[in-house]
Amino acid sequence: MSHCFVADLGGTKVSAAVVDAQGQILARGSEPVDTSSVYGPVEQVCRLSAELWESGLSRPRGSRRRVSRSGNWRAAGLAVPGLVRRTGTVWAPNLPGWERIPLSRLLGKRLGLPVTVESDRNAAVMGEAWRGAGRGKSDVIALVVGTGIGAGILSAGRLIRGAHELSGCAGWMVVTEEENQEILRRGCLEALAAGPSIVCAAQSAVEEQAAPALLALGRDPITAEHLAEAARTGNQMAKALFERAGRLLGLAVANLISLFDPEVVSLGGGLAGAADLYFHILRRVALDRCQPLAARQVQIRKSPLGNDANLLGMAYLALHRPRA
Questions:
Q1: DSSP symbol at 69
Q2: Which residues pair with 299 in a beta bridge?
Q3: What is the pLDDT of residue 324?
Q4: Nearest partner of 102 among 81, 113, 114, 117, judged by Cα
Q5: Count of CB atoms situated within 10 Å of the CB of 76
Q6: What's the rounded Cα separation, in Å, for the pair 316 and 310?
Q7: Beta-bridge partners for 15
Q8: Using an 8 Å Cβ cutoff, are 131 and 137 in contact?
Q9: What was the pLDDT predicted at 227?
Q10: Angle between helical axes of 309-319 and 120-131 (0-180°, round to 10)
């Protein structure tokens, strides 16, 4: 059987799925991440695996009910929001106590399967190259914009990792000379163009009474979704916030294109849901400011996979893991 179990562990939500060798999602589940203990997320992933197994999707007739072993799946994969060291340990700053968690070993022992663990940004680019905006391409960049900003980079069919597994920390790209505590703490691009940054700018404008029209939203607290709704209905302040983010993201994409010469750059992540408000600006700025020969050949696309990019990327990595 060529099915695999995969999970995408975020800072607030964990999603899981069973995926076949053609990239079809056969079953799925999701829930808020359990951060009550260090090993809470590990227990969650194992339980989701058991629940999908119990669904009967891939259990052969007459098999025993020992669901935690997942014996009819070929492999498992997990995307994490942080750093996966070459030693196999994981650092995930949004998960309490996750500084050197031996995640692959823990899950492999519990599930009885070969387990591949990868950063979410690398999972995203593999998903896009397999079944998304970069399908069939060997040089792809997946820019993921949501609560944070990261980039998965595929060059000549190989993931770019860096000396310390830190390649793709796109939120730290410098796109302005502006400097403040948030920029120094989170990185320039992330502090100015990620979802929480747009919300923060809106809240500051309201507090300073510089954007009285935003008060008409009547929402407390304001969210990125609320701002997108306001922008689509003509709120000029909300519209300007997304357009500024689009310009800054465009500068970042220009730098990525000039450095890596990709065939495709895909835009994904939570803020991609509001791409209608800024994607045209992102694309124009990127093509105007990147290396001219690359600009004539690169394709900049919105991801068609949505939140499934990480799951599909992990499925590809798990199914194509070299056998011992």
A1: G
A2: 264
A3: 46
A4: 117
A5: 28
A6: 10
A7: 8, 30
A8: no
A9: 93
A10: 80
* Angle in degrees, 0-180, between the axes of helices 103-111 and 40-54, rounded to the nearest 10: 30
Place of tokens 């990125």: 224
Residue type present at position 309: A
pTM summary value? 0.90
- The CATH number of 136-303, from 2.60.120.580, 3.40.47.10, 3.30.420.40, 3.40.50.720, is 3.30.420.40
Distances in Å between the Cα of 42 and the Cα atoms of 30, 87, 108, 153 are 14, 18, 11, 27
| pLDDT single digits (tens) 278-312 | 999 999 999 999 999 999 999 999 999 999 999 99
Burial 147-185 (b: 16+ CB within 10 A, else e): bbbbbbbbeeeebbeeeeeebbbbbebebeeeeeeebee
Q: Is the dihedral of CA 165, 145, 170, 34 positive or negative?
A: negative
Contact assessment for residue 121 and residue 269, using Cβ atoms and an 8 Å cutoff: no
